[in-house]
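Blackboard transcription, Thursday session:
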Amino acid sequence: MSDKTSGYLDMELLRFTTAGSVDDGKSTLIGRLLYDSKAIFEDQMEAIEISSQKRGDEEVDLALLTDGLRAEREQGITIDVAYRYFATPKRKFIIADTPGHIQYTRNMVTGASTANAALILVDSRNGVIEQTLRHSYIANLLQIPHIIVCINKMDLVDYSEETYNKIKEDYKKVAEKLNIKDVRFIPISAKFGDNVVDASENMDWYKGETLLNLLETIEIVDDRNHQDARFPVQYVIRPQSDEYHDYRGYAGRVASGIFRPGDKVKVLPSGLETTVKSIDTFDGELDMAFPPQSVTLNLTDDIDVSRGDMIVSAENSPKVEQEIEAMICWMNERAMMPRGKYTIKHTSNEARCMVRDVKFKVNVNTLEEVTEDKQVALNDIACITFKSAKPLFVDSYKENRITGSFIMIDEGTNETVAAGMIL
Amino acid sequence: MKEYNINHLRELEAESIFVIREVAAQFENPVMLFSGGKDSIVMFHLARKAFAPAKVPFALMHIDTGHNFPETIQFRDELMEETGTRLIVRYVQESIDQGKVVEETGFDASRNKLQTVTLLDGIEDLQVDCAMGGGRRDEEKARAKERFFSHRDEFGQWDPKNQRPELWNLFNGKKHMGEHFRVFPISNWTEMDVWQYIYLENIKIPNIYFSHERDVFVRNGNLLSVSDFIPMRDTEKVEKRIVRFRTIGDATCTGAVESEANSLEDIIEEVAASRTTERGTRHDDKRSEAAMEDRKKEGYF
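(Written on the board underneath:)
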């Protein structure tokens, strides 16, 4: 096997999301990343060349690569989250391309929920505007560990260092206000490719990395929680065969922390303690399991464990609570019912809940807390308290993106109506 | 690699296993669609991993157009026997015989679109509440908008503009009577990932993925295999070429590529150097810009 082939097996996976307002050139940037990293194929290029000609565009519109639905192409807008893929010898990338228009805040929250990094696009002619604030607030609310501010359309401001610096300073104030920890800045022109994949010849004053370079090297392993051992039980494996007659394995994905055979663990909600007997997989036993691995835990004692239970470190448990306070993003056309009843999905657990109180809503354009108007409607972000019908095993979202997150489901329509982050 | 780090293939594997286990936990009567192509073979391999040492707790379902590559069917039957898996086969020919669909005519006739009716009938008859498929988001632009858990109404239709938001790894499989779900466990895999994984795991695949000599003819730039079910125009000539298949679908609309690649390493290098997508060999997608979107809305895979 050649170096090229074997090298591919050591790549890491990085998921990032993109946020920008309608005309910031977000689709063009993604098109550029795909094009310059040679992830666009001839037949795809041909297809968009033909579409561009049909629409009477003078240049090939790279945005057509990401706007997959008929309605999107017709209206020239992005309606839904699209996932795009490309790879370099160092990493495989998954892009959640989310629409920037205000009525689609829910899509940005969706894309942000699984992202390791967020690209926030700023039009260099407009600088930091209300939408920039909104996108940054959401990226931070969803605790995306790394924010990359792409100051785009530098070609339209004569590649001015002064303009870049001004926007950078303005954004730093936003970052400070939001308490965003890791922010990087890159001046780019998505349309002409400056500092996207190749270093810009027009901006020799910029000494930093190109966007692709940054995406390839940002450290992401330590973003995962390796401290608090949490294993939501997803499925109980009981082979109905003679060979494995008494086998009971608890299948799931490690949410956080490290599990090793011999570890003392506690099963919630029963609180019974036992030890990890073995960590089983199709390929044999492992000597440890960590996030995001999917494994099967075998316990020493025969205790009752089922889907929705959680196996956790005996020394360090999540909170077991029924009264919960959380930030939510409302995602449905039907507004939240005051004291309404919904189904909560939290890890592999499910419970009915009743909304108790709306403490405040957040004006995402000014970041002010609003307490006068308590109706939580589509795209609203609010702080609520709710009571669940049975105890949930929770950590705060800041400490644990898996055991700290939940969705709310409308019991009548079965639709997912809200995303929640536990405080 | 650092401690507590896994490569991208292992991370994709872990994600897919999680999704497949979620299906087994959330649905009463799921099936896994199986075509004998590499994507469904990988998906089935992941399902075996998800439930080991127990058997896969659901049946596989093949929608058979009758226009198969014989190598694929032989491969399928051997794999089912070896793994002790239950296979359900539903035939497009039956839908035609029952008068539910009318076969296309002409040189470019394909049963590809007719599969949708056979599939939806199978889902209804067997009261399937979830059908897992090996669709990948990198395949086609309409698929890039697809969820892992994709809701279908009682007519089996997909409404791309009104999909449920999907956050973190919290999958909502709730539905009303008569509705069902399509779930795509390998959504986030690319063609390259699939090949690398087949290599990494040493997974068996049908031999027509590897280079071989075959009677073919050229149509619209594609190399189609000579067979009883594809009528040829007078102007089309049979030629012997050294080819392999990048995808395996219905034989009437799946083109071969000229290739000398006869090992997985060769295929991986070929895919890495390729300048066209694998669906470039799929005749069915070229019918219009929104061909896939339209078929998916009706209930296609």
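Lecturer's comment: Chain A has a mean pLDDT of 89.
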